[in-house]
Amino acid sequence: MDFFNTLEIQCLLQLIELLEQQRSQVDAKVEQLMNAIPHHIITIPGIGQVTGAMLLAEIGNINRFPALEQLVAYTGIDASVFKTGQFEGDETHMSKRGSHYLRYALWQAATASLLHNPELKQYYDKKRAEGKQHGVAMGAVCHKLLSRIFVIMKEQRPDVTH
Predict the structure, then answer these.
(1) Which residues touch 33 (CB under 8 Å, ≥6 apart)?
(2) Which of 89, 97, 124, 137 has the fewest CB atoms within 10 Å of its CB?
(3) Cα(106)–Cα(102) distance, rounded to whole angstroms?
(4) Phi first, then psi: what are they for 58, rounded to 5°?
């Protein structure tokens, strides 16, 4: 029985090593592709090559969004209110309509921004001090980060806020 456990562990370790090699190859290809296209998205602290590529791919041509609110709605981080007949709920939730890949990439970027972007970390801390739950505060950070992405992509310039 011991032999099979050892063999299973060896196979799993080899599989992990293979997956890490493949991930490194994919990361290198993403970096190569990102270097081949003009963009300034990775000048925002907290957005790296892979997350930047996801954001660019999901947003596509920024000019299809004349206003930030349209990009916010497409991302699905806009508020939705439960309303039926005469009743209107007093709690709002993230609508989560639109691209879940974009929402995921934005959430990842916002999470990394808390470590690498003092301005957004301060904004998050302010929201938490106001009594907001973590998810609500992160939603606010996502919205702020998305507005920065929108401006940078529209104006085709690097981030100058840090």
Answers:
(1) 53
(2) 89
(3) 6
(4) -75, -35
Helix residue ranges per DSSP H, 37-99? 49-59, 68-75
d(CA 81, CA 88): 7
Q: How far is Cα 46 from Cα 22, in angstroms, rounded to an integer?
A: 24
For 12-46, the pLDDT digits (tens) are 999 999 999 999 999 999 889 888 888 899 999 99
Centre a 10 Å sphere on the Cβ of residue 132 and count the other Cβ atoms it contains. 15
- How far is residue 161's CA from residue 159's CA, in Å, rounded to a whole number? 6
pTM comes to 0.79
